[in-house]
Amino acid sequence: MHAVLGMLMSVLSALADWTNQLAEELAVVAGHTFTRNDFVVADVVVTSAIIALVCVAFGAASRVKAHLMCQAMKATLRKAQSEIRFREALIGACSEAIAVLGADVGAAISYRGGGALLQACLNGPQGCALATKLNALLTGGAAFRIAVTTGANRRVILRGCPVGSHAAVFLQGEDPWVDAPTEYRAALEALTMPVWVRKPDLSLKWANRAYLDVAGAKSVEEARGAQTPLVRYERELARAVSNDAVLVGTKRYITVGGERRAFTLNITRRPDSCLVGSAVDVTEMARSEGTQRIEAETRARMLNELDVGIAVFGADKCFTSANLACQQRWGLDKDFLATRPPLTELFDTLRQTRRLPERHDFAEWKHEHLVLFEKPGARIEETWHLADGTSLEVIAHGDPHGGTYYFFKDLTAQLKVEASFNTLRIMDRAILNTLDDAIAIFGPDGKLRLYNDALANLWKLDPASLEKEPHLSAIAQMCASRPGYDVIWKIVSAAVNAAEPARFNDWIKVVPVADNRTLSLSVSRLPLGVTLVRFEDVTDLRRFAEELGPGALQPFPAAQAV
């Protein structure tokens, strides 16, 4: 203590000497005589230097302390991460329940219920033997394997071994399906689809309630005793899986409650050679597929009966299907169509064989058809005149789902009939135009079917209007401002609509017209209900007869007013 005080006094004395020397040097530098103020300034400088040194020393000490604390925290973190990796490796290494032991067996770290299961084994009949094994593992790291029975007569296989700096015990029940966690078993029991497990010898090991209902068993024990298969040949399927690895989607029919239902069987072989099977009820799906198949076959037969060719292209612009008329129309090879060629390839093939209309803008025309796939609801209507003399009406319609439908209707026969009809009509018109009398032919519906130019000239009618085959009433309306409308067209209307128009020929021969003309009207009924009306202008003949006097022309009757 005296030595420390002496050292402290020496330091203070040295500081006083340094302060006096510093004050004298400050006075010399300032150029004046040494005073007390110089000593005070020197004292402040020395004190500040001492305080600065103390602060630096304290900061360095704090930094060293913080560094040491950070290193300790990193070491703790590394240890925690090591413990986590150990736990993950331990859990992922096996599927058994695990208990990691320390000095106190009752304080074991438990995974998958390993601690509780270990305690149950210690409470069982072989608890003393197990405790001896555990003690040897904890003290000397001696590994062991033992099978014990719990107090509930449950057989458990335990395997103990040192893992790193820990002692781990792996516990495996004799029947993993019986020993599965309660929530898993409850979930399997709640499933509406049958689930079962077979041993390597194909005997039933476990089954849920749905399996028992389908198999007609009251309990798993009863099903085990009877070894009732879920479906006929199910054991044979399981035997096949035992040689391979998995069986998925095999459909079988099972009678459940007097109803025949469809199930798909899935059987998987586990590493322990046990077979896990499940059956999914697909009755409604099978019925729906059957209905769709029947509807598709019916639709296909119906489409094949049509004379109109139909081709369907999918959203990928590739051929999908075609009816019989379309296949016969284009004569394409079935193997070629089976490859689902794109629309552009089909067009190119048909063009090479001259089964498409000749177009100088073929690329642009083909692009217009491809646009149908991009614009749902778009429509193209064309008439194709082919090199072999065939004419087709083609309708392409975009499908809302991105595809396109093509309809091909053969117009060759129809166009020939129309051409023949038009030729006959032109010939009939030419023949009627050779007559001086005005001729009108009306159909059973009262529409004008044929006429000559004399009719249009007589009644001053527009030929363009007559070409539209107007009704008798429309013609009468057009003649409303013309002389004779109030008389002669009423007679014509009555004759066309009469059941026996021949009676009009007996007394309607000459009809006076308002413009002082006289017309001879003749009505004749032709086959198929067609009526021929003939107008003859006999005005000059009537005047000539009047000038000759009464009785001069006996064959010509006097004009009659109706």
Helix content: 40-55%
CATH superfamily (homologous) name of the largest domain: PAS domain
- Total helix count? 19
The pLDDT mean sits at 77
Give the helices and strands, then pairings.
Blueprint: H1 2-30, H2 36-93, E1 97-101, E2 109-111, H3 114-122, H4 127-140, E3 144-149, E4 155-163, E5 166-173, H5 182-190, E6 195-198, E7 204-207, H6 209-215, H7 220-226, H8 234-243, E8 246-256, E9 259-269, E10 275-281, H9 283-305, E11 309-313, E12 319-322, H10 324-330, H11 334-338, H12 343-352, H13 362-370, E13 379-385, E14 391-398, E15 404-410, H14 412-433, E16 438-442, E17 448-451, H15 453-459, H16 463-466, H17 472-478, H18 488-497, E18 510-512, E19 518-525, E20 531-537, H19 539-548
Antiparallel strand pairs: 1-2, 1-5, 3-4, 4-5, 6-7, 6-10, 8-9, 9-10, 11-12, 11-15, 13-14, 14-15, 16-17, 16-20, 18-19, 19-20
